[in-house]
Amino acid sequence: MSDPVVLFHELGAPGGRRFGVATLNVPAALNALSAGMVRLLTPRLRAWAADPAVAGVLLDAAGDKAFCAGGDLRQLYQSIREHGAERNPDAEAFFSEEYELDHLIHTYPKPLLVWGHGIVMGGGVGLMAGGSHRVVTERTRLAMPEIGIGLFPDVGGSWFLPRMPGRTGLFLALTAAPLNAADAIHCHLADAFVPHDRKPQVLAALAATPWVGDRVRDGATLTALLAAAGVGAVPPDSLVRRHAATIEALVAGDDLAAIATRLRGLHSDDPWLHAAVASFSKGSPTSAALSWALWHRARGLALADVFRLEYHAALGCCAHADFVEGIRAVLIDKDRQPRWQPATLDAVTADFIDDHLRPCGDLPARLAHLT
Question: Is 154 a catalytic residue?
Answer without folding.
Answer: yes
